[in-house]
From TrEMBL:
Transcription keyword on record: no
Membrane-spanning residues: 16-41, 47-68, 75-93, 105-138, 150-176
Protein name: Signal transduction histidine kinase
Transmembrane found in the keyword field: yes
Gene3D superfamilies: Histidine kinase-like ATPase, C-terminal domain
Alphabetical list of InterPro entries matching this protein: HATPase_C_sf
Keywords, comma-separated and alphabetical: Kinase, Membrane, Transferase, Transmembrane, Transmembrane helix
Gene Ontology terms, MF aspect: kinase activity
Length: 391
C-alpha cells in the first residue's frame, strides 16, 4: 500500500500546481468578471445572471480549495462540468445580446476550464476537454455570427490560441506529475533496498550474537562439565551451566544482556574481569594502567565478554600458563584490555570456519561496537588486544 512518505514529491507537486493554477485562474476570472459586469450593465436577464452564478460560484470554490489545499479535485471537477454546461447554453441565453462582435466574458475562462480538468480528471479526459472546449466555443461564436466571414478569422485565431495553450498546459501538468512519480518511485525503491539491507544486517548480527552466546556459555559449560574432576570444578561447571541456561532463556532480551549505553567507568571493567577470573578458576591478576574514564555501557559489556572468551581460551588451550590481564584506560577517549598467556600458541589461519570462539566471541563482538581485536600468537605465547576509541 502506498503511504504518505512514498507520495511526498507527488503531493508537493500537486500543491504547487494547485497554487499556480489558483493565481492564473484568479487573474483570468477577474478579467472575465469585469467583462461580464460591463455586459450586464447594458441590460441583463435573470437567465444571464444565473449563468454567471453557475460559472463563478464553482470557480470561487475551486480557488479557495487550491489556496487551502483541500477538496481541490472535487471543486475543480464541479467547475469544469459547470463551465461546459454554461458554454453550451451560451447561445440560448445571449441570443439577443448587442455585443456579439466583442469576445464574450466566457471566452476568458476557456483555459481555466482546461486547468480545472487537469486538477480533477484523468489524462484522457483532460485531453478531450483541451480540444473540446475551444472547438465548442468556436462553433458557438460562428453560430452567433451566422457563419459570416468576419467571424471566421477572429474565431479561428481565438480557437487556435486557446487550443495550443490548453495542450501546452496539459502536457506540462503530465510532465511534472510524471517526474514527481518517478522521484517517489526511486525513493520508495531506495527505502526498500535500505530496509532489506538493514534486515539482513540485523539477521547477521543476531546470528553472530547467538553463535557467540552458544560458544561463550553453552560450549564452555559443557567443556567445564567434561573436565570436572573435583568438587570445586563440578560446582563451577554447575554454575556455568545455570548461567548458560539463563542466558538462553533470555535470548530475546538482547539489550538487557549486552547492557545499555549509559556511561560505565573503566574501574567497573576491571571489577568484571576479576570476577570472570574468579569464576573461571584462573590464578591471575588484572593490572590497571592509564587514566580512568567513562565509556558507553554496551562497549564495556562487549570488552568484558570478549576478554572473558580470551581468558577461557587461555585456560583451555594453554592451561593458564603465564596468564596476565592488563586493563588500560585513556580517560573518556577509550579503553583497551590485553590478555596474555605463555602457551604454545596457534595459527589463526588454520582455525576452521565452524570454530567461533575467536571469530564470533572476540573479533565480531568487538567489531559490533566499533572496536577492534588484534591477536598475536606464536611459540612464545598468545597476546589478545581488545581496544575501543571514541570516534
Amino acid at each position: 500500500m502506498e503511504n504518505q512518505f512514498e507520495r511526498f514529491t507527488g503531493k508537493r507537486m500537486e500543491r504547487i500546481l494547485a497554487t499556480v493554477i489558483a493565481i492564473g485562474s484568479a487573474i483570468l476570472g477577474a478579467q472575465a468578471l469585469v467583462a461580464a459586469i460591463g455586459g450586464l450593465a447594458h441590460g441583463a436577464s435573470t437567465v444571464q445572471v444565473v449563468l454567471l452564478l453557475i460559472v463563478y460560484v464553482p470557480l470561487a470554490a475551486m480557488l479557495l480549495a487550491c489556496v487551502i489545499g483541500r477538496g481541490v479535485r472535487q471543486t475543480a471537477g464541479v467547475f469544469a462540468i459547470g463551465y461546459v454546461v454554461a458554454l453550451a447554453a451560451w447561445p440560448l441565453v445571449n441570443d439577443a445580446s448587442p455585443y456579439r462582435a466583442n469576445q464574450p466574458w466566457i471566452f476568458f475562462l476557456v483555459n481555466v476550464g482546461v486547468v480545472a480538468a487537469m486538477l480533477a480528471f484523468a489524462v484522457w479526459m483532460q485531453v478531450i476537454l483541451a480540444f473540446a472546449l475551444p472547438l465548442i466555443y468556436g462553433y458557438i461564436r460562428l453560430v452567433e455570427g451566422d457563419f459570416s466571414s468576419a467571424y471566421w478569422t477572429s474565431t479561428a485565431f481565438d480557437v487556435s490560441f486557446t487550443l495550443i495553450l490548453g495542450i501546452v498546459i496539459i502536457s506540462l501538468g503530465w510532465m511534472f506529475r510524471s517526474v514527481a512519480a518517478g522521484v517517489d518511485e526511486a525513493r520508495g525503491q531506495a527505502v526498500a533496498s535500505y530496509t532489506a539491507a538493514a534486515a539482513g544486517a540485523a539477521v547477521e548480527e543476531e546470528r553472530v550474537a547467538m553463535a557467540a552466546l552458544m560458544h561463550d556459555s553453552v560450549l564452555a559449560a559443557l567443556i567445564a562439565a567434561e573436565r570436572a574432576d573435583s568438587d570445586r570444578a563440578r560446582d563451577l561447571a554447575v554454575a556455568m551451566a545455570r548461567e548458560a541456561l539463563t542466558r538462553l532463556a533470555n535470548t530475546e532480551a538482547v539489550v538487557a544482556q549486552e547492557g545499555s549505553d549509559d556511561p560505565v567507568g573503566t574501574a567497573q571493567i576491571v571489577a568484571e574481569l576479576r570476577r570472570a577470573l574468579s569464576e573461571l578458576g584462573a590464578d591471575a591478576i588484572v593490572e590497571e594502567r592509564g587514566t580512568a574514564g567513562l565509556i558507553p555501557g554496551r562497549v564495556a559489556r562487549a570488552v568484558v565478554l570478549a576478554a572473558r572468551q580470551a581468558i577461557g581460551n587461555a585456560l583451555t588451550h594453554a592451561s593458564g600458563r603465564g596468564l596476565h590481564v592488563v586493563a588500560e584506560g585513556d580517560g573518556d577517549a577509550g579503553v583497551s584490555v590485553t590478555v596474555i598467556d605463555a602457551g604454545p600458541g596457534f595459527d589463526l589461519e588454520t582455525i576452521g570456519e565452524d570454530r567461533l570462539g575467536i571469530r564470533a566471541s572476540i573479533v565480531a563482538r568487538m567489531a559490533a561496537v566499533a572496536g577492534s581485536a588484534t591477536i598475536d600468537s606464536g611459540a612464545a605465547g598468545t597476546r589478545v588486544l581488545l581496544s575501543w576509541e571514541r570516534a
